[in-house]
Amino acid sequence: MSLLTQTEVYDEITKAQTTGNKLAVATIITTSGSTPQRTGAKLLVYDDGRMLGTVGGGCVEADVWAEARQALEDNKARVCHFTLRDNPDVPPDEEGMICGGEMEVMIEVW
Amino acid sequence: MMTAPEISVAINRAFNKGHSLAIVSIVSQAGATSEKNTRLLIEEGVGVIGGTLGLNQAFDTSTAEQALLLIKDERQEIVTQDFADTRLLFEIARPPLELIVCGGGHVGQAVAQAGVFLGFRVTVIDDRAEFAGRERFPDERINLISDDFVAALHSLKITPASHLVIVTRGHKHDEICLREVIDKPARYIGMIGSRRRTTTIRAHLKREGVDDELMLRVCAPIGLDIGAQTPEEIAIAILAEIIMIRRGGDGRAKSAFVREK
């Protein structure tokens, strides 16, 4: 999936707001080590739990999604740190693409 | 405070001018996450166009200066920076890159395809209808204009997001195209031809009173020297030069093996 552009992000916020809904915008603001997405990548999370965009998929996306849901519920922005450990349920990647990095995600509620 | 629709409008307005823009937000202040979705928008070549960080005027002004520096560095996309106890996030939004190919011959065809591959919005111009026709350019993403070169170029908005590749069927038409775009704010202007031929064209334009500074930025002969021979290879050499100018490489092989060969 290609990354969301700024235009797409603010258009989506506008759309959600005009229908009276809130929207959480999660942005990767810093990374260190090996992470599945670059800084700037965004995940939008809607009131009903739907998502748009990506912050890298897999387990970390689920964690960001959960934080975003909580932010929506609290109506409160937050900055979260994620450490990307190997998922024990997933066999080691034979190509050696293991994410062992850390990333910092800002979550805003619009 | 800027609302989301206001921000959308501001981004589109800047993009229509081919300008990049910095969207600055406050991540945290004195260690506490910012509660408000504060935004300060800074447009390339313009300065602050909306919003405020809400501290004081001087802080907005110095942030804007920093933002303009980041915009200038085309490798930058997103940066966090601390100013005293305030942590700022600078997100740089860049307009879609545009590639205008003058001439739908073999090289033009290959350049257009390579441009699409790299994510450019591609327009091909030729004054011969069949050379700017869908049969030669089946990819619907390529915009085709079959018209006189001057009229076609005149109808296009050439901005700092525009990259011009002049590869018409002959030097006469290359010169016509170059004359039409030489004073436009394009990010890249390249023209095909041998050193001798392109020097002649430069001399013509100079005699007509075109500024030296404008002439200097014309990339002619066009492309990186990778020994390209076929139209497809030439297209790669041209696009490689465009990438290099945007991203700031030096065009050398990375491995010592190739470099020292």
Describe the structure.
The complex is a heterodimer of chains A (110) and B (261). Chain A has helices at 6-18, 58-74, and strands spanning 23-32, 42-46, 51-53, 78-83, 102-109. By secondary structure, chain A is an alpha+beta fold. Chain A has one domain (6-109). Chain A has a five-stranded antiparallel β-sheet with strand order 3-2-1-5-4, sandwiched between helices. Chain B has 261 residues and is an alpha/beta fold. Chain B has helices spanning 4-16, 57-72, 106-117, 149-155, 171-181, 195-207, 212-216, 231-247, 256-259, and strands at 21-29, 32-33, 39-43, 47-52, 78-83, 86-93, 98-102, 121-126, 143-146, 162-166, 188-191, 218-219. In chain B, the strands form two sheets. In chain B, strands 1, 2, 3, 4, 5 and 6 form a six-stranded antiparallel β-sheet that branches. In chain B, strands 9-8-7-10-11-12 form a six-stranded parallel β-sheet, sandwiched between helices. The A-B interface holds A 5-7, 10-11, 13-14, 17, 27, 29-30, 38-40, 76-79, 106, 108-110 and B 4-5, 7-8, 11-12, 15, 23, 25, 27-28, 33-35, 37, 77-78, 80, 89, 91, 93.
Question: Which properties best describe this structure?
Answer:
heterodimer; A: 110 residues; alpha+beta; five-stranded antiparallel sheet; 2 helices; B: 261 residues; alpha/beta; Rossmann fold; six-stranded antiparallel sheet; six-stranded parallel sheet; 9 helices; elongated
Overall mean pLDDT of chain B:
94
Q: What is the alpha-carbon Rg of chain B in Å?
A: 22 Å
**Secondary structure: number of strands of chain B:** 12
Strand percent estimate of chain A: 25-35%
Nearest-angstrom radius of gyration of chain A?
14 Å
What is the number of helical segments of chain A per DSSP (H or I, 4+ residues)?
A: 2
Spatial strand sequence of the major β-sheet of chain A: 3-2-1-5-4
SS class of chain A: alpha+beta
Largest interface: A-B, 22 and 21 residues
Q: Classify the fold: give the CATH topology of the largest domain in chain B.
A: Rossmann fold
Structural class of chain B: alpha/beta
Mean pLDDT of chain A: 84
